Amino acid sequence: MENLIIQKELTVLISITTVSGEKMKVIKQTKSLCPECLKVLDATIFEEDNVVYIKKECPEHGFYQDVYWSDYEQYERVKDFEYIGSGLENPRTETKLDCPYDCGICPQHKSHTVLAIIDITNRCNLRCPICFATAGTTGYVYEPSKEQIREMLVNLRNNKPVPADALQFSGGEPTIRKDLPELVRMAKELGFKHVEVNTNGLRLAASVDYCRTLKEAGVSTIYLQFDGVTPDVYKFTRGVDLVDSKAKVIENCRKAGLHSIVLVCTLVKGVNDGQVGDIINYAIQNFDVVRCVNFQPVSLCGRIPEKERREMRITIPDFMRKVEEQTDGQIKVSDFYPVPTVVPVSRAVGALKNKKYVEFTAHPHCGMATYVFVENGKIVPITKYGDVTKFIKAMEKVYEESVKGHETRMKMRLIGSLRYITFGMLRKYIWPLLKTGSYKALGDLHRKMLMISSMHFMDPYNFDLERVQRCCIHYAVPDGRIIPFCTMNSIHRPKIEKELGIPVEEWIKTHEKDISAVA
Fold first, then answer.
1. pLDDT exceeds cutoff 80 at 273
2. pTM for the structure as a whole
């Protein structure tokens, strides 16, 4: 808490500097990366004309500047919901090379694992122009064995004080692996409550039986690549028209009883940012099986000149404005809250149950989300049913009373917090969640709402080590390390997969049955 107060005081003490003859407000100093050599550099985050930028200079490769957040007012608003975690009690690596090169997770990391990811292959049945993980371009196949995957799962479940409960099998394209259903069963047996599959959907579109097999194995959610509603979008992002294929996935999952799909849109400026409202409407039309729409602003990798980066860069505030504009104001920018907003709820319920729950202590500028109800085909944001800010602050008071040992006051404040929620459906589902803290109660609530969210994963141009240290989405790898998402994809992935991978030609010789599936 002391660090948070100090940070806020530093933010208030804004200095005025001059860049290119224009005044700018320096918000904070941080650390970043050189996009060329990936060395750690001093960086400055500043505001100019209500836009937040990050700038840095590499002695060897020169000056870099990029948009960090496109709206300074929103940047400041979300800081009120900043909650810093305490990390893992059992980090797997020591602090030697310093952040971000000690990932594993090291003692400097401030968040535990909320969502664990295991890449079970880098093979794929598509060649997407915007993908960062495919054997077709790297020249080798990375595919951990079933036993290696089991070891990674056990490692994640050994996290303290909270074992990883939520897991995503990813790739490449995980459905290429014939043993995917077995892997799902194994994860469930080892205690993962939530197991999702990150997929382009081609295999699911081809077979209702396969969808049914995944459901029977224990898959909780299908994390479906979904970039738009017209062929031109997919031809740009995936190299082929996939509109009918996506519709078929939803139809097949519905028939198979798989009623939890997340539509995942890689958001590219000038390509599909005009379809944000259409994608949300598509989710509403399929609300019986679609639980969430997650928009991910594209990460810019490789050597890209600043002018081109500016043309391509889209940030979370841009996304929120698109939502408001393209839903005719049914969902407003003010309806969105940062990911860590829910931390006081986890802490309050944990205090009530004398149990430690997962805490979403991500950096407040990593992601924003809101929930909406679908009533007679209309969108009604959760903010219409209650005062989110006052409810969250009330949860803080519940936790504070628990820390003081005032159990009776804690329970009274918990009951009192409900005054910020209107009577009816929301209270009906919120109270069981607060009372029991159960996965079932959480699921019951989620099935009544549609989540609309955006996570902006960093690239070397907008990289901020402060954000990295609070990342709560972590990859497990075969050597025993657990690596934050943005460092995995910006730094560590090529080295890990090359060391553990097999040249494509060699892999083909030893896996003749799967030759047709090699990307």
1. yes
2. 0.91
